[in-house]
Design brief:
The protein is α/β, with parallel strands linked by helices and about 325 residues long. It is about 30% helix and about 20% strand. The chain has ten helices and 13 strands. The strands form three sheets. The chain has a seven-stranded mixed beta sheet with strand order 2-1-5-6-7-8-9. Helix 5 runs antiparallel to helix 8 and helix 6 packs across helix 8 (about 285-305). The longest helix has 20 residues, at about 285-305. The chain is globular. It binds iron/sulfur cluster (2 copies). One iron/sulfur cluster (SF4) binds near residues 229, 230, 232 and 234.
Length: about 325
């Protein structure tokens, strides 16, 4: 599929979907926004600054209203959307969300209304340093990730990404219906066979898992605990962080109000506060350890998939230059 044809597909989708995808802001950051004009869509291999999670789990979401003793039924009618430009790591993260929020009606309904269009780059030969986060194809990767439509970008002779003959895959009935409706038949169908086995508790994962369990008191946490300023940026941009808090927002006389679910992060010191102002995670060092423990021990053990999709967003945004992959290496060496 040529670039022009793909942009026509976006126009076609816009007739009955709100289409979201990566666009550049004034500061040259790639953000996920509604695509009003197809020329604004940027698919060049770079990861978006924030992940796509806000579209599936809004940063603050009203769950229901109450009025005196009456509970107002939540409204599950969400807009029909197409989300374009999720990379392979973003799609892997979504798989974790599917499991964590398997029984959450808000997440599930929103997901049902969403057409997911992922993309990857066939080769990164001679691409600039800026594209270090490009997710290249691993062998048979598409069988292991869920999507409706997937675009494999190929370069032209001058190495211009997207300008070559791009390949299209469908991974669901919905994806197929859309392409059929658009009148495009030249696609391959991919059967989903489940998450990548090796990425469950493979040897590296097992080693990290084991080391993390024994590393609670290690110097590593003390060292990065001293540097971290608890800004929470790493968790905001991370596509696999999903912790939230529940806030009740009552009216002044407390007769009415609403319950809201908002993102939270274990990097904040109030996160582990329980009644009596006791904090279970007492200092930055413990909070750092806890963040890694959740990603590399609890999530893999519970869901059998990694709690980190190696996108690198956390290290990229950290204002004190904590390199999370380097921390992992230190854990493995410890
Ligand atoms: S690399 Fe960092 S931001 Fe990306 S998934 Fe792993 S922990 Fe989250
Ligand atoms: S981004 Fe860096 S400084 Fe901010 S909370 Fe995360 S580790 Fe700490």
């Amino acid at each position: 599929m040529t670039k022009t044809k793909f942009l026509e597909l976006i126009n076609f989708l816009q007739k009955n979907h709100k289409v979201y995808g990566p666009v550049l802001d004034r500061a040259n950051r790639l953000l996920v926004r509604e695509i009003k004009k197809t020329e604004h869509l940027v698919l060049d291999g770079r990861l978006t600054h924030y992940s796509f999670k806000n579209l599936f789990l809004p940063d603050c979401e009203p769950l229901f209203d109450y009025d005196h003793q009456k509970l107002k039924e939540p409204n599950y009618s969400y807009e029909k959307r197409a989300i374009v430009g999720m990379t392979i790591s973003d799609l892997k993260a979504l798989e974790l969300y599917d499991q964590v929020f398997a029984k959450d009606p808000y997440y599930q309904e929103r997901k049902r209304q969403t057409l997911v269009i992922g993309y990857g780059i066939a080769s990164k030969k001679s691409y600039s340093e800026e594209l270090i986060y490009v997710q290249q194809f691993e062998e048979n990767i598409l069988e292991h990730i869920k999507f409706d439509i997937f675009l494999e970008l190929n370069s032209d002779k001058t190495d211009k990404i997207f300008n070559g003959s791009n390949l299209i895959f469908v991974g669901s009935e919905e994806g197929m219906k859309v392409l059929d409706g658009f009148g495009y038949k030249n696609y391959d169908k991919i059967e989903y066979v489940g998450p990548i086995k090796e990425e469950g508790l493979d040897r590296t994962m097992m080693a990290i898992n084991d080391k993390m369990k024994k590393s609670y008191t290690k110097k590593i946490w003390e060292n990065i605990g001293k540097r971290c300023i608890e800004c929470g940026q790493c968790t905001l941009v991370c596509p696999t962080c999903y912790c939230f808090r529940i806030d009740d927002e009552p009216s002044l006389d407390r007769s009415k109000g609403k319950r809201v679910r908002c993102w939270d992060a274990c990097m904040y010191h109030e996160f582990s506060e329980i009644s009596g102002k006791t904090r279970l995670l007492k200092n930055t060092e413990q909070r750092m350890w806890f963040w890694f423990y959740h990603k590399f021990v609890r999530i893999p053990e519970k869901y059998k998939i990694p709690g980190c999709v190696k996108c690198g967003r956390c290290s990229r945004v950290c204002p004190v230059d904590i390199d999370f992959m380097k921390v992992l290496q230190d854990v493995l060496k410890s």
